[in-house]
TrEMBL record:
Keyword Transmembrane helix belongs to the record: yes
UniProt keyword Transferase, yes or no: no
Membrane-spanning parts: 29-47, 54-79, 91-113
Organism: Fictibacillus nanhaiensis
Keyword set, alphabetical order: Membrane, Transmembrane, Transmembrane helix
UniProt name for this protein: Phage holin family protein
Pfam families xref list: Phage_holin_4_2
InterPro entries associated with the record: Phage_holin_4_2
């Protein structure tokens, strides 16, 4: 449970960072970012495996790069469901945001969350 909450927090921070740097990516407030993070995590759990399975030949042929397109599509779907509180201007912006959010998630997980977990295990 704590791991899922930490993941949500990291994803929320990543969404807010991207929204702060790009005009084509707008999140109204932190509660909208948190809701978008919840929706995106639900899509990643339930829809992403189905999309990966359906696009497996393309994903293999592209050496896994098509996964970025799937992430961008799920991010766009999240923005559509959120209405005016979360907007992405075009699929190109969604692709760029998906890459940056993935990199930020990886960075925050490996360099912030993991050291905290290691400190707790030592105590």
């Amino acid at each position: 449970m704590m791991s899922w909450l930490a993941s949500l927090l990291i994803n929320t921070i990543a969404l807010m960072v991207v929204a702060g740097y790009f005009d084509g990516f707008h999140i109204e407030n932190i509660s909208a970012a948190l809701l978008a993070s919840v929706l995106l995590s639900l899509f990643n759990v339930f829809l992403k495996p189905i999309l990966i399975l359906l696009t497996l030949p393309v994903t293999i042929f592209s050496l896994g790069l098509f996964l970025i397109v799937i992430n961008a599509a799920l991010l766009s779907l999240t923005a559509e469901l959120m209405g005016n509180s979360f907007n992405i201007d075009g699929f190109g912006m969604a692709l760029l945001a998906a890459v940056i959010i993935s990199l930020l998630n990886m960075f925050l997980t490996n360099f912030v969350l993991e050291p905290i977990k290691k400190r707790r295990k030592r105590k």
